[in-house]
Amino acid sequence: MISNPVARAVRGSARCWRHRAVFNGLPVASSVSGWRWRSAPTRRASSAMEELLARVAVPLPSYETRDKSPPPPESTSLEFMNFYRGLEKEDKAGFLSRLSQECGVDHRAVSDLAVKLLDTQRRDQATILQAEDRLRYSLTPRYKLLFSHVSRVQGGVKFLVDLRADLLEILATKASDSPHIRDLNSTLKSLLSEWFSVGLLRLERITWGSPCEILQKISQYEAVHPIRNWTDLKRRVGPYRRCFAFTHAAMPGEPLVVLHVALTEDIADNIQSIVREFATLDAEEDINKINSAIFYSISSTQAGLQGVELGNYLIKRVVRELQSEFPHMAQFSSLSPIPGFSSWLQGLLSQCRKEGRGSDLLSEQEWAEVEQAVGSNPGTPAADSLRKLIATGEWTRSEKLSLALEPVLMRLCAWYLYGEKRRGFALNPVANFHLQNGATTWRINWRADTSPRGVANSCGIMVNYRYFLSETSQNSALYLQSKAVAASEQVLGLVSQFQKNSKL
C-alpha cells in the first residue's frame, strides 16, 4: 500500500506535467576545452536534425505490442550513424543535447501510469504487478530503443562506445551540465555494461605472432610505459613476458583493456629492470626462474567504456591463466606508478609555506639537512627551494640530496596512498583500483622509476600492490563497505613516521 501523502504528491506531479511547456531550446553558447556549445543550430541543421530524429527515434510501441513490433530496417540505424559521424564536433554536442531532451521519457504518460498504479493498490496482486510493469516500461527513453537497434548493425557497438566518449567529454569540460545529457550518458553506460559483461569478453594472449593490426594497437594504447619501437614491443611480448587483452565479438581486432606482465624470480622493485632490461629475444624460459607475476601496466583503450568494470576482471582471469601455465607460482603483485603524488606534494608545500607551517611537514633537523644539501641563498625559504627541486627533478642528480629527501618523501608518499581520501576512498586512482580488487598496499619503492616521467609524476617512487589470493575477497569487501585499507608493516611503519613527524 502507498500512503495518502505520497499519493497526493504523485497526483500533484502528474498535474504539473500535464501543464508544463516542453522546452526545446539548446544550452547557451560557450566555449570550453574545444567544445563550442551553440545556443541553437542553424535553421537548416535544425531542420535536418528534426527530420532525422523523427525517423530514427520513433515512439515506443504500445505496452500490448511491445514484443510484436518488428525492428526498423538496418538502414535507419546506419542513417543515424552516418549523420552523426558527418557532424562537426560542436554540432555533435548540440545534436546530443537535442536527442537527450526530445527523445527521452514521455513524462506525461509516466505520470498518468503512476496515478493508475496508486489507484490499483487495493486490488489483487496480479493487477498491481501489471500496473507496475506498465509503469516500468513507460520509463524507457526513446533513445534507449534507438541505441539497442544501432548495436545490432555492423560497427554499431563501436559507434556507441565512441558516442559515449563524446558525452563524457561534454560532461568533463562542463560544456553542458544538463540533467538530460547526464541521463543520456547514464542510460548508455548501463547498456554498455550489459553488452560488455565479463561472460561476453574473450581473453587473448598477445604474442609476436598476433596480427600486425593488434600489435600496432597494443603499442599505440600503452599509456603507462610508452613503447619506443618494434623491438621494444617484441621484447614485451617475448620470453619472461606476457601480454593479455580482453576483446569483444562486436569489436573485432580492437583490444578493450590490455595487461602487461613480467615473469620474475621475486617481486620487482623498479620498472627499469622490466622495461629496459630484457632476456634475449630468442631465449628459452627457465621455469625455475619464474616465481612471481608482476602486473606492470594496465591500460584501458576505449574512453567510452569508462566506468564499465573491465580491468579488475582482466587481472583475475590472467591470474587463473598464469596459475594454469605455472602451477607453482604463488606471488602476484603490481608494480604501479603513483600519478598525482608530486602535484599533491607541491600543493602541500605551498600551503605550509603560505601558512608558515613548514615545521608541521618536516622536522627542524630535516629542514636543516635540506638547506645544507640545497645550498640555498640566505633568506630563501627552504620550502621554496624544495618545491623548485621537486618541480624540476634536479634533486635526482645529487646523491646528497637524494639521501636527505628519501625518508621525507617515502613517508609523505605512504601517507598520500594510505591516508589521503576522496569520499572515504583512496584519493590516488591507481590505489583505489587495486584496493577495490582486494590487493594489499605492500611495498613502497624508492627510485623505482627514474625516467623523467616517473620523477615528474611521483618523485621516482612506485608501489607494489600485492594480491594474496586467499585474502582478496575479504580485503575488497572491507574496503568497499568500511573503507579499510589493507597495508603491510612497511607501509604502516612509514605512515606512523609521518604521523609522528608531521602535524597536519
Features:
504 residues, alpha+beta, 5-stranded mixed beta sheet, two-stranded antiparallel sheet, 11 strands
Q: TL;DR?
A:
By secondary structure, the chain is of the alpha+beta class. 51% of the residues lie in helices and 11% in strands. It has helices at residues 4-19, 43-56, 74-85, 89-102, 107-119, 125-138, 142-150, 156-172, 179-195, 212-221, 230-236, 272-275, 311-325, 341-355, 364-374, 382-392, 399-418, 429-436, 452-458, 472-482, 489-501, and strands at 30-32, 35-37, 201-205, 241-248, 257-264, 292-300, 331-334, 421-422, 425-426, 440-445, 462-466.
Tell me what the structure shows.
There is one protein chain. Strand 1 (30-32) and strand 2 (35-37) form a beta hairpin. Helix 17 (399-418) crosses helix 21 (489-501). This protein is of the alpha+beta class and 504 residues long. The strands form 4 sheets. A 5-stranded mixed β-sheet has the order 3-4-5-6-7, covered by helices on one side. It has 21 helices and 11 strands. The model is unreliable at 13-35 (pLDDT under 50). The protein has helices spanning 4-19, 43-56, 74-85, 89-102, 107-119, 125-138, 142-150, 156-172, 179-195, 212-221, 230-236, 272-275, 311-325, 341-355, 364-374, 382-392, 399-418, 429-436, 452-458, 472-482, 489-501; strands at 30-32, 35-37, 201-205, 241-248, 257-264, 292-300, 331-334, 421-422, 425-426, 440-445, 462-466. The chain is 51% helix and 11% strand.
